[in-house]
Amino acid sequence: MLEGILGNLDLFLFLLFLVMGYSCGTIAEKRHYKSIIKREKELIKLMLVTAEGRFADGAVQESFLVSGSMVVSNDYFKRLLAILRNFFGGRVKAYESLIDRARREAILRMKEEAKSKGAHMIVNLRLETSTIGRSANKKNSVGSIEALAYGTAVVMNRP
Known about the structure:
This protein has four helices and four strands. By secondary structure, the protein is of the alpha+beta class.
């Protein structure tokens, strides 16, 4: 029995590191989501619209461009699971959460910049995403992605 275990020690170590890596990645992702949710609650009153803003004359004190970006990558373990998912088809949750985290973080960073400059709202929000790194432009390979959020921050004249 002991000889059998020692004979497959490489396999056991591989599985052990796979489980540890997957667990650490999952914990880091949960912490990031917890931070995102907390900050979204803090910034919920800062209005954000995708439409162009049209305001009455004299209503706007100042307007300026704000942006936020986020570059995020999946860990190797989730990437391995995503590759396995490609064999059978279906949703690849590892990549869905990767894109969701990047978009939400980029928007939060943009809102934080707008708030720090005294803006009351952001109009004309736009989102861009792209893959970057060594795996960019390679078919069926996602290494790191960048999400960029930008818009026009507006400071209103208030009586």
